[in-house]
Amino acid sequence: MTRDMGWIDIGALDDVPLRGARLVKSRAGCIAVFRTGENEVFATSNTCLHRGGPLSEGIVHDRKVTCPLHNHVYSLETGEVQGADSGRIATYPIRIENGRLLLEAAAIAKADAA
């Protein structure tokens, strides 16, 4: 990982499979980086609110992920639980630049302070 003007290079876009995820460990905890079928990327907490399931092992569909343990569905855009359940997981600013994934360092630092 390298830092560049407030953003942390966490690897290549191609390191994350289409409709899949990869796990990034930070001081803020484990962050799941998701790639949709349309090549969009999102970063969220890796932990399901229901029973702590690993969201990075879930099913990515549209702009959502389904927890592999109990099928709770989260919006990758907002972190909001979908359906009848309520709650929100943390989301982190992420972007693609020249085929590289960049995660905003300030967002992770803010999560550390919380």
Automatic annotation (TrEMBL):
One of its GO terms (molecular function) is 2 iron, 2 sulfur cluster binding. One of its GO terms (biological process) is nitrate assimilation. It holds the Pfam family Rieske_2. Residues 7-103 form the Rieske domain. Keywords: 2Fe-2S, Iron, Iron-sulfur, Metal-binding, Nitrate assimilation, Oxidoreductase. PANTHER family: 3-PHENYLPROPIONATE_CINNAMIC ACID DIOXYGENASE FERREDOXIN SUBUNIT, FERREDOXIN-RELATED. This is Nitrite reductase (NADH) small subunit. It comes from Pseudoroseicyclus aestuarii. The lineage of its organism: Bacteria, Pseudomonadati, Pseudomonadota, Alphaproteobacteria, Rhodobacterales.
